[in-house]
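Thread: Newbie trying to understand structure tokens

Hi all, I'm a second-year student working on a class project, and my supervisor (Dr. K.) asked me to get a predicted structure for one chain before our next meeting. I've only ever worked with sequences, so writing a 3D structure as a token string is new to me. If someone could post the tokens and maybe explain what I'm looking at, I'd be very grateful. Here's the chain:
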Amino acid sequence: MLSFLSGFDSFFVNPDNNDNNDNPAPAGTTFPFMNSDRKNGRYQRIYEQLQGLLAKPGNSLSRMATVAAVLSNKIDYFFWTGFYLLDDGELIVGPYQGPVACQLLEKDTGVCWAGINQGKAIIVPDVHKFPGHIACDSRSNSEIVVPLRNRNGQIIGVFDVDSKDFNSFDETDQIWLEKIVSLI
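---
Reply by user tm_fold:
Sure, no problem. This is what the structure looks like when written as tokens:
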């Protein structure tokens, strides 16, 4: 192994051995999942960066755009990163990073609406098994949705992240994304 790569092998999935409890990936997955300590450290640094960026003047739209841009560029397994916002009972796309999004999501269908209707974060390891999943991009295989609330605690939309890989998201992602979304 090249010397500059030493130490990185522990951050990649060994398809023949899935005994590492910090690794959420199923056997045979080739995606480079981070162990929980490394993932927490990455999110902590991103959170601190966003605190500084979002302390500057701006409105909620610019804050959402900043969050989507930073997370999209800092976390490799985020394929589509953005917001869907409630507007007169409809869920429409807001600021995002990634391929072209569905502009309007069918009411009470899919992961985003599930997050709104249940009032909580939703982690979907395999979107193809989620009843009513809306496939805006067929390359998406897993997803996490975090409700976006206004200052009164009312849900006004969701923060949605898709990954090309199965089983990409876990409780660590949920905890940090909820903290990050609360900065908006």
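A couple of things are worth pointing out once you decode it. Residues 1-32 have pLDDT under 50 and may be disordered. Residues 27-181 form a domain with the Beta-Lactamase fold (CATH 3.30.450.40). Feel free to ask follow-ups in this thread.
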